[in-house]
Structure formats: structure tokens, C-alpha cells
Design a protein that fits this description.
The protein contains 3 helices and 4 strands. With 103 residues, the chain is α+β, with helices and mostly antiparallel strands. A 4-stranded antiparallel β-sheet has the order 1-2-4-3, with helices on one face.
Length: 103
């Protein structure tokens, strides 16, 4: 199996070149790890879907604002935000959609 057929067979959870955006100390510009956790990122073309869990709606809003400020993303929309409970703690499960800006 060649590299192209593997890459095109399924959408990637996160593109290899984007992971460094969230997997380094600079990620604190985008999120506060103690208040938000990203569960998955799915890329289809220039569109990116982000799913995660946050402490509250304000944390989600701040995350979206920080994505807009980065200029790496555009058309950031909240698809869903719903109440979730883990270990008797009320949290917000969310899904965002956005487009990657190729500078």
C-alpha cells in the first residue's frame, strides 16, 4: 500500500502539520488546558471539525476568540454545545467547525 492510498482512504483525525499548533507550550494562546480538553480534530479539505469538553460556555467562547485571533483559522462556528457530566462534574461537550487559512 502506498502513502497516497493510505492518506486518501480515511479522513485524518488531525493533519500532521497542524498538531504542533496544539502540542506545544504555545498552545496556551489557544486554550487553558485545565479548562478545556480537545477530543478530536477531523480535516476534510480546508474544513476542520473540532470536538472537545470544556468547563463552561465562557471557556468555549474564549477558545473560539483565540482561534480567530490566530489568523490560522477563519469562519469559526459553534455547531453544538451540550451539558455533559463526568464524575459528577457538569461540563460542556462541544463541536466547532472552521476553515484553515492557508496564508
Amino acid at each position: 500500500m502506498d502513502r497516497e492510498s493510505v492518506a486518501s482512504s480515511e479522513p485524518r483525525v488531525c493533519p500532521w502539520w497542524l498538531i504542533h499548533t496544539f502540542d506545544n507550550p504555545v498552545r496556551r494562546l489557544f486554550q487553558k488546558p485545565e479548562k478545556i480538553q480537545l477530543e478530536s480534530m477531523k480535516k476534510e479539505g480546508a474544513k476542520l471539525g473540532i470536538e472537545g469538553i470544556a468547563l463552561d460556555d465562557e471557556t468555549i467562547a474564549n477558545f473560539m476568540t483565540n482561534l480567530r485571533k490566530s489568523r490560522l483559522f477563519k469562519n469559526i462556528d459553534l455547531i453544538v454545545s451540550e451539558q455533559s457530566e463526568q464524575s459528577r462534574i457538569k461540563l460542556k461537550k462541544f463541536t466547532l467547525s472552521c476553515e484553515i487559512s492557508f496564508m
